[in-house]
């Protein structure tokens, strides 16, 4: 898309990260918690975009987002599944091995 988040015209980065006043933008409560002053908040916000996500991590994030899965450690995924009552990790695709034998027994 762009090399610098400030170059993307539809992003709130110019306001949140650089302090540009935008009449249409209302600061989000989470943004306001980044610091006590405008300068602190802008500095913390810029730090969020300091590094690019690439390679396998980017692929894993896309896969989880596209499939509605949880991304994290095994323990974290299990805890989220327990809280939601839903399976949120990828399962094996296709039918179970031996499903035809089970069908023939009925």
TrEMBL record:
Domain of life: Bacteria
UniProt name for this protein: Transposase
């Amino acid at each position: 898309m762009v090399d610098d988040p400030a170059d993307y015209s539809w992003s709130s980065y110019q306001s949140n990260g650089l302090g540009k006043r935008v009449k249409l933008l209302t600061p989000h409560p989470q943004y306001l918690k980044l610091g006590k002053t405008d300068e602190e908040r802008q500095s913390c916000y810029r730090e969020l975009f300091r590094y690019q996500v690439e390679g396998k991590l980017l692929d894993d994030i896309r896969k989880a987002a596209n499939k509605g899965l949880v991304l994290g450690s095994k323990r974290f995924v299990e805890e989220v599944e327990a809280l939601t009552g839903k399976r949120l990790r990828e399962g094996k695709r296709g039918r179970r091995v031996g499903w035809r034998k089970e069908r023939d027994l009925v």
